[in-house]
Amino acid sequence: MPFWDTVMDSPSDIAYGNRLVPNVVDEIALKDPARVCFSFPLSSPNPQGRYHDVTFRTFANAVNKTAHFIRREIGCSAMFETVMYMGHQDIRHFIILVALMKTGHKVLFSSHRNSVAGHAELIKQSDCGILLYTSGFSVNLLLESCRMESVCIPELDYLLNDDALCDDFPYEKTFEEAKIHPCMVMHTSGTKGLPKPVVWTHWTLAGADTEQLTPPFEGRPTLWGNLLTKTSKRSFSALPMFHGAGLISAVTRACFGHTAIVIGPPGITTADTLARVLDHADIDSAFCDPTPLEEAATRPDIMEKLGRLKYVAYTGGLLSQSAGDAISRVVPLYSVMTSTETAIFTQYATDPEDWQYVFFDLTINGIEMRPHKGNLYELVIKRNAAQADHQAIFKNFPHLDEFSMPDLYEKHPSKPGLWKFVGRKDDISS
């Protein structure tokens, strides 16, 4: 029996797809305050293996402290002004995100790997004039290049200190009032030029919540509505917090789902990092980019530990055939489709031997697999008003009626509905 068959259905009185992250945080903090939402190592490189669990009570209090701080320093916004955040790789990314929602701003997250020119382009395109940053994080070059007001935010220890509860900072909008309001600015990779900003709305984030209403397809549960949100109690997120996939997978799974998100030590996640997390963080699943998995597949010690998990998911690139085959023999392995422009897709679980493939319902996603050349197909999304909740691309770009990723796929040789990514259209020679 697949392990997902043992997962209980969620209560039917929850308004899936019509919930706002700030309201969910406050509601859980009130009704289930001891529930853990995030966990992180107490020291780096964390030789003792001690992790600090953050409850919703603590997280909501930290959000309120930060919202009050932001209001004192820069005021609230009625026009969703853009505020850039640059800081150390810790859960203040999540705290800042929700706090700025409460103060009426939208937050710009720029990859730490961007050049100063890349940062500057995003600041210009998103009309951003304020920078929030953490102490000890270098922002001098950025401030020399861009005229911005800058504010250093409080230390994490202060934000997570529950000795004195902060006054509430309510977020009083309903979903219908706020769903099309912008709340965050992500950006494209910039691999072929400067990165371009992509504005996400509350409705974009709610797409992951909507997935909980999507029924199984031929007995297969959805990834976002079931496997990634309900089957795991503690999931290691190796995705950068300043990237869209890292943010949406962490925040939505913690808030809309039932999974505590475990953060690793600062820096790029390696196979050794993964091994330490497996040893000390009490995780039962992992969501990674392919890099640490490539090396982990060659390490019997790590493979044995991966075999204890309920699943491993990956996104953000291709995983080699040898690594994927090795990992899928010891633990269910899922390829997750994400992009800055489209956020997530409705996907279903695949069999172990099909780990390279994505399984989705073309109708729900509004996808047309348009013939390209030979046995290749271009993934095109077409607007379908009946499936609006599942089409984040048109929440982010409401003026479009059609969007090409532009990614090329090939069909599974024998199983309908399964598609394998083979590359970008521009990168495959004609």
Automatic annotation (TrEMBL):
- Name recorded for this polypeptide: Acetyl-CoA synthetase-like protein
Q: Which Pfam families match?
A: AMP-binding (PF00501)
Keyword Phosphoprotein attached: yes
Do the record's keywords include tRNA-binding? Answer: no
Q: Which residues form the AMP-dependent synthetase/ligase domain?
A: 29-356
Assigned keywords, A-Z: Phosphopantetheine, Phosphoprotein
